[in-house]
Amino acid sequence: MEPGFWHERWREGRIGFHQASVTPQLERHWDALGLPAGSTVFVPLCGKSLDMRWLADRGHRVLGVELSDIAVRDFFAGQGLVPSLQETVFGVHHAAGPFEIIVGDAFALDRETLADCAGVFDRAALIALPPDMRRRYAATTWAALPGGCRGLLVTLEYPQTEKAGPPFAVEAAEVEALFGGDWSPVLLERADILPAEPRFIDAGVSSLTTSVWRLERHPRP
Ligand SMILES: C[S@@+](CC[C@H](N)C(=O)[O-])C[C@H]1O[C@@H](n2cnc3c(N)ncnc32)[C@H](O)[C@@H]1O
């Protein structure tokens, strides 16, 4: 899943991962995190997700990062906003209203850039990456978030031998292994979604569940 893979998907409009509505798990579990209005929420690998609009409607500022400028331009156009552009070492920052989206590489972001993020929402980001990149993502992007940051992570579980990713299966043991050191992962929900996923049924996948994790980062020493 190198950058070229994603750029091609966006160029060709092969973006089956994009949802026309808000992630239901976000709606169900976000308020329980107790993040105050006005706080900033980081949305890594954000695409043009409408979850960002939902978070803004809860009073949050949203900081996204996304490789594809097609996705980011589409997002702002869809919101009827014209962003101002500013170039930094991390990429081109697009800002308008409550949204700032960096067109750049999530793995490159540093602690200073993410210092104001009290929250994080990961849907189709961790699971978009193969195993070695997931380890890198946790060790760089998530590791740059500040102590006390809390958020939600949505994962998928299915027998990886039955279908190739993305999206990839990420089992509970891996969530613990990736985040158990610096974060406190708590499983909030697991649901069987195979009946609603014909692509997985057609591929012969025998079971498919989705999980929602609450993660809270320990204070930094
Ligand atoms: C499966 S999509 C999910 C998008 C979004 N989270 C959603 O729910 O619609 C993964 C996105 O991550 C972006 N991406 C992949 N690798 C990235 C990286 N290293 N830095 C920033 N964005 C990346 C891709 O361009 C793609 O838009």
From TrEMBL:
InterPro entries: SAM-dependent_MTases_sf (IPR029063), Thiopur_S-MeTfrase_Se/Te_detox (IPR022474), Thiopurine_S-MeTrfase (IPR025835), TPMT (IPR008854). It catalyses: S-adenosyl-L-methionine + a thiopurine = S-adenosyl-L-homocysteine + a thiopurine S-methylether. Its main location: cytoplasm. GO terms for cellular component: cytoplasm. Its EC number is 2.1.1.67. The keyword Cytoplasm applies. The keyword Transferase applies. It holds the Pfam family TPMT. Keywords: Cytoplasm, Methyltransferase, S-adenosyl-L-methionine, Transferase. It is an enzyme of class 2 (transferase). One of its GO terms (biological process) is response to metal ion. It is found in: Cytoplasm. Signal peptide: none annotated. S-adenosyl-L-methionine binds at residues 10, 45, 66, 123. It comes from the Bacteria. Belongs to the class I-like SAM-binding methyltransferase superfamily. TPMT family. NCBIfam families: PRK13255.1, TMPT_Se_Te. PANTHER family: THIOPURINE S-METHYLTRANSFERASE. This is Thiopurine S-methyltransferase. It comes from Luteimonas granuli.
